[in-house]
Specification:
Layout lengths: L1 H13 L18 E10 L6 E12 L4 E13 L2 E14 L4 E4 L3 E5 L2 E5 L1 E5 L4 E5 L3 E4 L8
Antiparallel strand pairs: 1-2, 2-3, 3-4, 4-5, 4-6, 5-8, 6-7, 7-10, 8-9
């Protein structure tokens, strides 16, 4: 049971995108590894799934930095996946509530796909900056056809 609790707490620490500050949270030992994690985030008012964060591995690099490998984030709208975000490797910066990646990042949405070599994503404001070899493919919607 302790291993499950440690994994659950580590996953909560990995990304706090849908919640405010966590008071009195445990600190993890540098070098701790959490494998095959999945962290669903629900709307506090409706209980509906908003986001699911998954990864192959999370490694605690410092009290402020967790390295995430094979990160996948599914963003939901009305119970269905609307947007998917993929990164082979990125870092979660706990104090700043920020994700950074120097590895290719892909964002897939029904209307567009964005890829970039680097990314910085502020979890507080939900604003991301993509740099280096940024490619945006926009799907033309039927309502836009003359």
């Amino acid at each position: 049971m302790k291993r499950f609790e440690a994994q659950l707490l580590a996953c909560a620490l990995v990304l706090l995108a849908a919640s405010g500050p966590v008071y009195g949270q445990a600190e993890f030992v540098v070098g701790s590894i959490i494998k095959n994690f999945e962290l669903p985030q629900t709307d506090k008012n409706t209980g509906q799934l908003k986001m699911k964060i998954m990864g192959k591995e999370a490694i605690v690099m410092s009290p402020n930095r967790i390295q995430l490998k094979k990160l996948e984030i599914d963003l939901y709208k009305q119970g269905a996946i609307e947007t998917r975000i993929f990164s082979a490797q990125c870092d979660y910066w706990h104090k700043e509530k920020r994700l950074t990646s120097s590895d290719t990042v892909t964002v897939k949405h029904p209307r567009l796909e964005v890829t970039a070599d680097t990314m910085s994503w502020d979890l507080n404001s939900s604003v991301g900056t993509f740099k280096e070899n940024v490619r945006v493919v926009i799907q033309r919607g039927e309502e836009l056809v003359p």
